[in-house]
């Protein structure tokens, strides 16, 4: 049963005249009459009674009219739904993220995305970069937000933003009153940091920066999570060089200061090259827009 036959039948039922109905649906009268006969043959019962002056619906035709209108409405809804899906306005998105981004950027990006695309279901999963690469390959997540490098060549990677490092010091530290620090100012200070195996690229970049400044940081305490590291700073265990986004974590006893000529850390999105879903494209655009306009204040 073709949708055009239903449209022709509805037009005839509402106009009650073959000529006017034909004009309404932009066909000649003979084509409309043929369409109605084909529809009646397919349904198996007469739907209209014909006279020289007016066309009237049979009882079967009245009943069929209700279903025909509902069918066309559902078909139109399906078309609109397909267009919305193609624009990324409906669907499901599973986002993997490294833990630190929960404090800098991710909550705002997800909030803006949900406001703009309320019919896309968003699920968040905190995973290390290595776990995200595995989850992307297995289809468990749609997109991963992480720091470089991304090792799997099958994954597409887009840099969303680049963030500098800052210094996190105990509020009681002698340097806490300074407006800006050089990395050399931290030579001789005890450091707290991630274990290298969790954030190898981040760890190595900080070490290279310090070596270039003439010293090797002495990491006296390791922790896996940003809040724990900042708590260690507040407890005066050592200093830390987080990405500027993490300075959004306002913790009593911690002072954040900008650093001169700091390394820039790439925050990237990764996804399977063959899985460029419309909802993913929409999410990446929202992330790019927000990250490029956001300013992470120092506390």
TrEMBL record:
Protein's recorded name: LysR family transcriptional regulator
PROSITE patterns referenced in this protein's UniProt entry, alphabetically: HTH_LYSR
Database matches in Pfam families: HTH_1, LysR_substrate
Stretches assigned to the HTH lysR-type domain: 1-58
Protein keywords: DNA-binding, Transcription, Transcription regulation
Similarity comment text for this entry: Belongs to the LysR transcriptional regulatory family.
InterPro entries: LysR_HTH_N, LysR_subst-bd, WH-like_DNA-bd_sf, WH_DNA-bd_sf
Domain of life: Bacteria
Coiled coil: none
């Amino acid at each position: 049963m073709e949708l055009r036959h239903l449209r022709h039948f509805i037009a005839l039922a509402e106009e009650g005249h073959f000529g006017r109905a034909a004009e309404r649906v932009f066909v000649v009268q003979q084509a409309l009459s043929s369409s109605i006969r084909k529809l009646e043959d397919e349904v198996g019962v007469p739907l209209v009674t014909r006279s020289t002056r007016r066309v009237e619906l049979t009882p079967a035709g009245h009943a069929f009219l209700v279903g025909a209108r509902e069918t066309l409405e559902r078909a139109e809804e399906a078309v609109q739904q397909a267009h919305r899906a193609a624009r990324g306005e409906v669907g499901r998105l599973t986002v993997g993220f490294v833990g630190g981004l929960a404090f800098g950027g991710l909550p705002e990006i997800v909030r803006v995305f949900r406001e703009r695309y309320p019919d896309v279901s968003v699920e968040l999963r905190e995973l290390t970069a290595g776990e995200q690469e595995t989850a992307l390959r297995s289809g468990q997540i749609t997109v991963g937000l992480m720091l470089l490098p991304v090792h799997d060549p099958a994954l597409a990677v887009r840099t969303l933003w680049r963030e500098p490092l800052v210094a996190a010091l105990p509020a009681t530290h002698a340097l806490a009153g300074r407006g800006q620090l050089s990395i050399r100012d931290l030579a001789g200070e005890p450091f707290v940091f991630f274990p290298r195996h969790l954030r190898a690229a981040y760890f190595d970049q900080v070490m290279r920066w310090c070596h270039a400044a003439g010293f090797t940081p002495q990491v006296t305490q390791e922790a896996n999570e940003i809040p724990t590291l900042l708590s260690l700073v507040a407890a005066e265990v050592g200093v830390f060089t987080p990405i500027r986004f993490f300075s959004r974590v306002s913790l009593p006893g911690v002072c954040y200061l900008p650093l001169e000529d700091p390394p820039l850390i790439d925050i990237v999105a990764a996804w399977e090259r063959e899985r460029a879903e419309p909802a993913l494209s929409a999410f990446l655009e929202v992330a790019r827009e927000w990250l490029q306009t956001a300013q992470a204040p120092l506390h």
